[in-house]
Specification:
single chain; alpha/beta; Nucleotidyltransferase, domain 5; five-stranded mixed sheet; two-stranded parallel sheet; 6 helices
């Protein structure tokens, strides 16, 4: 049976999983040949929080759009059920998994395509924007969750075979650097330190 992956992306109110919250979730289950389902929801803001102008400019999401969204804990629970039994893939897995799994272990198997990009192309930028530009992958509507998921699928399609052909271990690997130290380490992760000025 083919391996099933769940590609995920979150948009959030900020970077700190302890103080900020998810505002949009997207996920796609696939074996890279066939798609088995999609999950997408806005998430209601908690505690009378308002989106900052910066986040609205970045994502195009407004506070009003989130008023009819899913409750935060219901949304996380639904995502966890959706990805159960699959290998989770995210472009910056430590970031996405910090918001989903910091209170519980929900997956032992993941791929960080940011780490994958850095391992395959160590002298190049591993940002999703730059990886997509180098490999001719469409990233229209960057910083909207489903658009980023679909781009991440294509990044994985391009780079995973290269890593495998070179014998590069990228499963459960995360990268850390002086400019971008890890603030969260997913369960079962292997940390690779990369030199300064190479993220």
């Amino acid at each position: 049976m083919s391996e099933i992956f769940t590609f995920i992306d979150l948009e959030t109110t900020g970077l700190d999983y302890e103080t900020e919250q998810i505002i949009e979730i997207a996920a796609v289950r696939t074996d890279l040949v066939r798609e088995y389902g999609r999950f997408h929801t806005f998430v209601t803001l908690r505690d009378d929080r308002e989106l900052s102008d910066e986040i609205t400019r970045l994502t195009g999401i407004s506070t009003d759009e989130l008023r009819g969204g899913t409750d935060l804990y219901m949304a996380i629970g639904a995502l966890i059920r959706f990805l159960a039994g699959t290998t989770v893939v995210a472009h910056n897995a430590p970031f996405d998994l910090s918001f989903v799994t910091h209170r519980a272990i929900v997956t032992e198997d993941f791929v960080c395509t940011r780490a994958l990009a850095k391992l395959v192309e160590p002298t190049e930028s591993a940002s999703l924007t730059n990886v997509c530009a180098r490999h001719g992958i469409d990233l229209t509507g960057h910083h909207r969750a489903m658009n980023d998921v679909l781009a991440t699928i294509e990044v994985f399609r391009k780079l995973a075979p290269i890593a495998e052909a070179r014998g590069i271990d990228y499963r459960n690997v995360v990268v850390s650097s002086p400019e971008r130290p890890l603030t969260y380490v997913p369960y079962n992760a292997k940390i690779v330190e990369v030199p300064a000025h190479s993220t």
